[in-house]
Amino acid sequence: MKILIICNYSSGLYKFRGMLIQELVKQGHTVRAIVPKLDDKNEIKEENNLKRLHCGLKRIPMERRGMNPVHDAKLMFAYYKTVKKMKPDLVLTYTIKPNIYGGFVCRLLKVPYAVNITGLGTAFQGNGLLRHLVTAMYKVALKKAKVVFFENAENRDVIVEARIIPKEKTHVLAGAGVDLEHFKYAPYPKDSEITRFLFVGRVMQEKGIDELFQAMQRLNKGGYKCVLDVLGGFEENYFEKIRKYEKEGWLYYLGYQEDVRPFIEKCHCFVLPSWHEGMANTNLEAAATGRPVITSNIHGCLEAVEDGVTGYLAEKKNANALYQVMKKMCELSAEKKERMGMVGRKHMEDQFDKCAIVEETLKWLM
User: Fold this and answer.
1) Same domain, 14 and 159
2) CATH number of the domain that 23 lies in?
3) C-beta neighbour count of 109 within 10 angstroms
4) Is there a domain that residue 227 lies in?
5) In this predicted model, what pLDDT tens digit does every residue of 133-150 receive, in sequence order?
6) Among the listed residues 330, 331, 326, the one whose alpha carbon sits nearest the alpha carbon of residue 312
7) Half-sphere exposure of 47 (CA within 13 A, CB side)
8) How far lies 53's CA from each of 11, 12, 163, 182, in Å?
9) Cα separations (Å) of 110 from 29, 84, 89, 90?
10) Is 155 contained in some domain?
């Protein structure tokens, strides 16, 4: 079979779907992918990795965020020309614009396609015009899909209840899973009396960064010995706040890091107070490494944590709730924190093994 993948980021394609591509090629399928034009030097290495997997790339201009009718029409027309020329036997789409515009094109050209909704994004957070617009577009785009994959049951239920697609055409996967060989269990750090928290993600309001900063300020003012490492690029302007907190001595901003494993291994607890997620891969990666996880009590985050056993859950957008569970973590002995991490690793092995999720995905596709 000729299989075409349409997504919005080549680095994400390799990191989260590389094992799936590898297995498809191994089974004798030809795999190509449509990705946006290069705008990030970190994507160059991932492009080479994809080529080593024998996945050919076609780059098309794309604005990942926002909706511009002219630019989006050009994107859809570019998808149309490419899909018509390639004549794939199956198309897999990931993320909102590829899902919608790729779905439109595949339906028009009568090409079999499968859609992966990796998160509903900001469009479904309110009940305004944008939500109604995206709902209408999804109804058209997903109507003829072979299957629509979701990363958590809540996202699936929202789409089904909006009558976008019937439930029998959906399947919930445990996200993209986590590569347990790449994110190996690492011995728990015992060389410090300071609790080192870690955040990995885009520095933006919807990742709960404001609540996290407020909780850390309270902890330090309350005499708790703790610091916070922040990894990730700026999605919004937090430069002044971060510079201020660095001067206060409890925050270390480390920017984008290609390999997050050394930073996870160094931390005592991972924190992600996000407002919404499809499935937060960083939670899975930290838990697989054997670190307790503090995250929001929302679908897409809560699946990674057994509350009070492998970490703690906190109400989203609630700085006080986050403070309380981070305080609990600071008060735990190193032995209890280590035990949380060990049980979290077992949870990843049981529920989130990427090998098992790739196998499950292929059963629905083939």
Assistant:
1) yes
2) 3.40.50.2000
3) 15
4) yes
5) 889 999 999 999 999 999
6) 326
7) 14
8) 13, 15, 38, 17
9) 20, 10, 10, 10
10) yes
